[in-house]
């Protein structure tokens, strides 16, 4: 891991013309109205940044843009791990235990260049990252700027650039360096509902070893790829591919490959990537160590196939009766939303806080098309989201 550059105080000198435009964007309209044109302009600027894992310069650019939008006068701690930059912003010093952490990721998954050219339609803003989750990040930055110095308790804005590739070099990296709090709001998309439960995650490589031979004489070899396919068939018989939403364990086969370069060669080596998502009800996986899960998956493997478990993250859960959860639900309802509870099949960075006994919920704007060619944010949810976060923080008491 790379060393952390440390903390800085953002200067309070006059902003540039570009900064003045962003300062003007830091006001949203009243309940029921679309966000200001200024805010939408900054959102489009951020959405145009191709902040994917393979573009470190654009990861930094997206991070700096949101830090600039949050404004001067705050302490900014910058972190870097495995080339992924992140930041923690708060008022004053030294770093306290935060009453609330507003967490946002600024990285997005790969997409063609045209998906980084934002376009508007009535009630929608289309672009890669519009729903997941750059617009929510800007709203969190706006709320932080307006309230951080006014609240009777400390809050933080946590900005990371690696959530889409696991979150271990952003949120987890910061936690391992002492960042902590009482309650965390992850700004992932939710349509102003509260995600209190998420599935656990296991990443697995299946490695198959056979015996190479000339493709014209297969009886002289032992095809590693065929053994791997038999193993995958057995695993998927236990965990069938879901054809509709269901709260059970799912296994996604993300890659199957050999290392042969010739058609007339029996593969001696083969490998498959598995992405396993499981609810707490799965006793075969929940609460198990990586070694125990590897042994369990080994029972499905053909001779010569070995499961290698890279990461195990438990399911995430937040107490729906916790005062902060109820307060956030009440704030959403006051904006005309039901604030219902959701379960998510995907894992978010809240799981790292959950493992340390800190409640975290997902609460963000609405939209659709996450990770797809027609991803969009429902612009009618932006202002209510801003107002709900503001109301929640103003009503929350010190611990």
UniProtKB/TrEMBL annotation:
This is M20 family metallopeptidase. Residues 198-283 form the Peptidase M20 dimerisation domain. It comes from the Bacteria. Pfam families: M20_dimer, Peptidase_M20. Residues 1-23 have a biased composition (Basic and acidic residues). Residues 1-25 are annotated as: Disordered. Transmembrane segments: none annotated. Keywords: Hydrolase, Metal-binding. It comes from Sphaerisporangium corydalis. The keyword rRNA processing does not apply. Gene3D superfamilies: 3.30.70.360, Zn peptidases.
């Amino acid at each position: 891991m790379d060393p952390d550059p440390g903390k800085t105080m953002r200067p309070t000198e006059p902003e540039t013309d570009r900064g003045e435009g962003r300062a003007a964007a830091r006001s949203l309209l009243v309940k029921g109205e679309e966000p200001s044109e200024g805010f939408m302009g900054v959102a489009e600027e951020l959405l145009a940044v191709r902040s994917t894992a393979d573009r470190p310069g654009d990861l930094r650019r997206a991070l700096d843009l949101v830090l600039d939008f949050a404004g001067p006068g705050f302490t900014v701690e910058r972190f870097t791990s495995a080339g992924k930059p992140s930041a923690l912003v708060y008022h004053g010093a030294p770093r306290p235990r935060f009453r609330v952490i507003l967490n946002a990721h600024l990285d997005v998954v790969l997409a063609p260049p045209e998906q980084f050219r934002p376009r508007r339609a009535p009630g929608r803003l289309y672009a890669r990252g519009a729903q997941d989750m750059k617009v929510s990040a800007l709203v969190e930055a706006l709320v932080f700027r307006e309230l951080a110095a006014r609240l009777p308790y400390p809050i933080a804005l946590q900005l990371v650039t690696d959530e889409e590739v696991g979150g271990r070099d952003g949120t987890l990296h910061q936690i391992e360096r002492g960042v902590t709090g009482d309650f965390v709001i992850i700004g992932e998309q939710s349509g102003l509902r509260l995600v209190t439960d998420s599935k656990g995650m296991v990443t697995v490589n299946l490695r198959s070893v056979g015996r190479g031979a000339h493709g014209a004489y297969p009886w002289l070899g032992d095809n590693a790829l065929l053994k791997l396919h038999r193993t995958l068939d057995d695993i998927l018989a236990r965990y069938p591919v879901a054809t509709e939403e269901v709260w059970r364990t799912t296994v996604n086969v993300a890659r199957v490959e050999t290392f042969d370069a010739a058609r007339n060669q029996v593969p001696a080596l083969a490998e498959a990537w598995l992405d396993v998502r499981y609810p707490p009800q799965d006793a075969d996986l929940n609460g198990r160590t990586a070694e125990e899960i590897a042994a369990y998956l080994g029972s499905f493997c053909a001779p010569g196939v070995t499961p290698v478990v890279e990461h195990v993250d438990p399911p995430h859960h937040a107490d729906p009766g916790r005062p902060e959860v109820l307060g956030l639900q009440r704030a959403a309802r006051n904006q005309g939303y039901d604030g219902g509870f959701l379960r998510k099949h995907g894992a978010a960075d809240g799981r790292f806080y959950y493992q340390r006994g800190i409640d975290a919920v997902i609460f963000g704007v609405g939209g659709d098309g996450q990770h797809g060619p027609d991803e969009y944010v429902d612009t009618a949810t932006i202002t209510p989201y801003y107002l709900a976060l503001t109301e929640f923080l103003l009503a929350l008491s010190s611990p």
